[in-house]
Write a structure and sequence with these properties.
The complex is a heterodimer of chains A (364) and B (530).
Chain A (H helix, E strand, L loop, with lengths): L9 H18 L3 H4 L6 H26 L4 H5 L5 H31 L5 H18 L1 H25 L17 H10 L1 H13 L7 H29 L2 H4 L5 H12 L6 H31 L4 H20 L2 H12 L3 H5 L1 H9 L11
Chain B lengths: L1 H8 L43 H11 L8 E8 L3 E8 L5 H14 L10 H8 L6 E4 L2 H10 L2 E5 L5 E4 L29 H11 L5 E7 L7 E7 L5 H12 L9 H8 L11 E3 L2 H9 L3 E5 L5 E4 L3 H4 L10 H30 L7 H10 L7 H21 L2 H21 L5 H15 L4 H39 L1 E2 L2 E2 L38
Helix pairs in contact in B: 6-9, 11-15, 11-16, 13-14, 13-15, 13-16
Classes of the chains: A mainly alpha (364), B alpha+beta (530).
């Protein structure tokens, strides 16, 4: 099996969970639904993270009882393996689409105003595929490398916006309606559960169930707190009526800061820095979906699945953005150059025929 | 002349031009090239020495092509007036004075009454030979290698054994100052081409009984000597075993150097960044050995390869540790900023100027527009052109001897730049950015990393031209991910930062010297294991 899970430590796995929780929670928000009845996004996020952690603990407990290091070990004993796995894979693909779609909207709305959605997608697809194909070890290590820079940029964004914060903007708080908060938190599970679900899928790489549990807890709690802080800052920056319909309000906050202080012209650089986090998050979910798929259906290599799932995710983003007719038109225009897709692999296959045997390690 | 003119008009003139590829036995050419010839393996001598001196003499003469190869000296002697022997050495490689004083003179003076022919080698070695390093062998290949190395072999009639005496006395360069890794506070010695001298330089620093210099024959046909220098009991045995396995798998006809060996045994061949540190400083190699790593010395190469490495190793200078801690930290931060600036500044400027001009202040934008008013090249072509010119000047400066090399740098930097601005080929703003980039690039201490960064920068510029900040982001993220995948002999490239290890020297901040007790744990050395 060449699933490229590898082996990694607690800090690295906590880093990817943290980033995924933050980027899913802060940048994949359905702002219309979230801010419909007031400004309680930070409460909703906190409750949602707690709910996700409870689910995570239940799965970890089940793993301890049944024995196994990852989710597929748990599913593997079920007779309805495929029936259980496919919804999870779909959920991960949808979770992967969310932050990317949100950034695509922001980029086409604020940065490349005249560009088409599909053009921007063309840049993202190779990167998404490469990250997904390189495997879990690469993903978590890249997350660990980028984490300090991303945290610094997020904290700097929160601090630089202090001048804009007005406490009266957080009203109305639907604190008197706990049921609504719980309901919203339940629907926000699609943002807070996938980071932990993906960790469960690649649990084999954490080398130990306890390590997986602690890194999941630390990552989810830290990411949830950071996300709640960011959403609270947003609530103090914009009234909830404005927040409804903003694609990435967190970036919008930076733009407001820049409007106040024109010497700080780093908003776009920061946006693209955050895009790294979003791509990493999406690749993490897609890779987890690949692993789940490969383990369930006995596929030995994760790379073909990585290519397929990255393609599916990007195509679905396009379908959701354009109507079906436009997407079909885009795909038809691609047919003209589709011969390349057939021509390109042929030399690769021929080269592969004379491939060297991989070096194997020596045990001492 | 007359012959040439006549041949020009004579269509039946015989084909007399000397050609190798077209006429020799490579077979029918295919569309792209001639068929690849089958590799012939050089058969090593595996036999034992014969008891007959004449047979041994004939075989050696045959192997060394003594008929044409006049360097081989075969000196017959009669030891103790009764035993025929042959002293074999290579002219120029062996010290004649040592042979005359310590081999030939005792051979004529020794009394060997009652010693049988088969016991003569041992008797001569113990009672007559006044040399320090001698060895008895019966393998023919050992004799051949020893002669080729400059040692002297004494072969005896009636004994299937030979004595190998260390008489190496060839000329070699004395220990000089490092040319590429100059320091102000550190030592001023550099490795030479002589492997023995290099070992001595290391041993002078590492005065420990557990410091091992393991000699090995490199793979391939040339049989170059390699030395693995490490601390036994400290180095990770799995790392050592894996390195030996990879060295054993080398099969090449080329001359081996540290750089070539690196390429033959590394995991990621297409990565531009090096996976082994090549240093000319013995103190740096010794520090790495003390840290539980392995230094690889190669005969004829004035560099030591240190492995495994991380990104921190490539960004470290030899004298970092000699500086005071705050100063060392500041220097490291400046170096890191220089590296980041040199990598991303041209691409960032291109992205802002071409795709996001709103991110530049109106003053800067006006300056850029004014400086480019008469320049006819597009901005991205201008940037890439200047970056390539910078590489050109740099390569030219490196390849020509000392003072002329400096002059080329000055001519390239000042005159060419000034002339290019005057001729409206480039703008001053772009020139300043390329100059800053060049300066930043020189802050990267490792030469291979400098070159890798220089070409990655051009790639980034193309990405920035195509996609602005989006292009830079995507390319940068892919490059980071690939670097996170890379492992130098099993150690991830970003260790000890990612994966985190307990005893990690920080990439940016230099730790206090008193906190650096013991060995770094990112190679999982034996001494630090629980």
């Amino acid at each position: 099996m060449n699933l490229r899970i590898g082996a990694f430590g607690r800090q690295e796995s906590a880093a990817i969970v943290l980033l995924a929780t933050f980027f899913s929670g802060c940048f994949a928000v359905d702002s219309r639904a979230l801010y419909e009845n007031g400004n309680a996004s930070y409460l909703v996020e906190t409750v949602s993270v707690i709910q996700a952690l409870l689910l995570f603990e239940i799965v970890i407990w089940s793993l301890r009882v049944r024995g196994g290091n990852d989710l597929s070990a748990l599913i593997g004993r079920s007779r309805l393996k495929a029936a259980l796995t496919i919804p999870l894979i779909l959920a991960l693909i949808i979770a992967a689409m969310q932050p990317l779609q949100s950034f695509l909207l922001t980029i086409t709305q604020y940065v490349f105003v005249e560009s088409k959605h599909a053009t921007v997608c063309l840049y993202l697809l190779p990167c998404l595929f490469l990250l997904t194909a390189l495997g879990a070890e690469t993903l978590v290590r890249t997350a660990r490398i980028l984490l300090p820079i991303l945290l610094l940029s997020i904290v700097a964004a929160l601090v630089s916006g202090i001048g804009q914060y007005r406490i009266y903007r957080i009203y109305p708080i639907p604190i008197g309606e706990p049921l609504r908060i719980f309901t919203q938190a339940g629907s926000a599970e699609m943002r807070t559960v996938p980071p932990l679900l993906a960790l469960l899928c690649i649990g084999e790489g954490t080398q130990d169930r306890l390590a997986m549990r602690s890194s999941g807890r630390i990552g989810a709690i830290a990411g949830g707190l950071l996300c709640a802080a960011a959403l609270f800052a947003l609530s103090m920056t914009f009234p909830y009526s404005q927040l409804k319909g903003m694609p990435t309000p967190f970036y919008r906050m930076l733009v407001e800061v820049r409007a106040e202080n024109p010497t700080l012209r780093l908003d776009r650089a920061v946006l693209f820095l955050w895009l790294c986090g979003a791509i990493l998050t999406s690749a993490y979910y897609l890779y987890a979906a690949c692993v789940l798929f490969c383990k369930t259906f006995g596929v030995r290599d994760s790379r073909p699945a990585a290519l397929c799932l990255s393609g599916i995710a990007v195509t679905l983003i396009l379908v959701l953005y354009y109507d079906a007719e436009t997407t079909v038109a885009i795909l038809r225009s691609l047919y003209r150059d589709a011969w390349m897709l057939i021509a390109v692999p042929i030399p690769l296959i021929l080269l592969n025929l004379k491939r060297r045997k991989p070096k194997c390690a020596v045990s001492v | 002349m007359k012959e040439a003119i006549r041949n020009l008009f004579r269509f039946d003139a015989p084909y007399r031009r000397f050609e190798l590829i077209e006429t020799e036995s490579l077979g029918t050419p295919s569309f792209f090239a001639h068929r690849k010839a089958k590799k012939t393996k050089l058969v090593k001598e595996h036999g034992m020495l014969s008891k007959s001196l004449e047979a041994n003499r004939k075989r050696l003469s045959e192997l060394f092509r003594a008929g044409v190869n006049t360097d081989l000296i075969l000196r017959p002697v009669v030891i103790g007036g009764r035993s025929n022997a042959l002293v074999v050495s290579m002219n120029g490689m062996a010290d004649e004075k040592q042979i005359a004083d310590f081999i030939l003179r005792p051979a004529f003076q020794v009394q060997a009454d009652g010693v049988s022919a088969s016991a003569m080698p041992a008797f001569f070695r113990e009672h007559a030979l006044s040399m320090h390093e001698t060895e008895l062998t019966s393998a023919r290949n050992d004799v051949i290698c020893a002669i080729a190395e400059g040692r002297t072999a004494i072969l005896f009639d009636g004994a299937g054994e030979a004595i190998l005496c260390d008489t190496r006395g060839f000329v070699s360069r004395p220990v000089g100052e490092p040319q590429n890794e100059m320091t102000i506070l550190g030592p001023k010695e550099a490795f030479t081409e002589n492997i023995r001298t290099n070992i001595t330089l290391l041993r002078r620093i590492l005065k420990r009984p557990d410091f091992v210099c393991e000699f090995r024959d490199s793979g391939g046909t040339n049989g170059t000597k390699l030395v693995l220098a490490y601390l036994d009991g400290t180095v990770n045995p799995a790392l050592l075993a894996e390195l030996k396995r990879r060295l054993d798998s080398i099969a090449t006809d080329t001359r081996l150097t540290v750089g070539r060996i690196e390429q033959l045994i590394e995991d990621f061949t297409y990565l531009p960044l090096p996976q082994m540190l090549k240093t000319e400083r013995p103190d740096r190699a010794a520090s790495a050995v003390l840290d539980g790593r392995i230094a690889l010395l190669v005969e004829g190469c004035p560099l030591a390869g240190v492995l495994p490495i991380t990104i921190g190793t490539l960004m470290e200078s030899g004298e970092d540790i000699d500086m005071r801690q705050p100063v060392g930290t500041i220097v490291r931060v400046i170096r890191m900023l220089g590296a980041i600036l040199s990598t991303y500044l041209p691409a960032y400027f291109l992205a802002l100027a071409l795709h996001h001009p709103g991110q530049l202040s109106s003053e800067i934008l006006e300056t850029v527009i004014a400086s480019r008013a008469m320049v006819f090249l597009p901005l991205w072509v201008e940037m890439i052109f200047l970056l390539l010119v910078f590489q050109l000047v740099r390569e030219a400066g490196l390849r020509v001897p000392g003072s002329i090399g400096h002059a080329i740098g000055i001519i390239g930097g000042l005159l060419l730049g000034q002339a290019a601005v005057s001729a409206n080929i480039v703008s001053t703003v772009v020139l300043i950015i390329v100059a800053l980039t060049g300066l930043g690039n020189f802050t990267i201490p490792d030469y291979s990393a400098q070159v890798a960064t220089a070409y990655y920068r051009i790639f980034l510029c193309i990405a920035a031209t195509l996609g602005g900040l989006l292009g830079i982001t995507v390319t940068g993220l892919c490059a980071t991910a690939v670097m996170c995948t890379v492992k130098s002999f099993g150690v991830p490239f970003f260790a000890p930062f990612s994966p985190v290890t307990r005893h990690g020297e920080h990439l940016l901040f230099r730790t206090r010297i008193r906190n650096r007790a013991g060995v770094s744990d990112w190679t999982n050395p034996e001494r630090r294991r629980a």
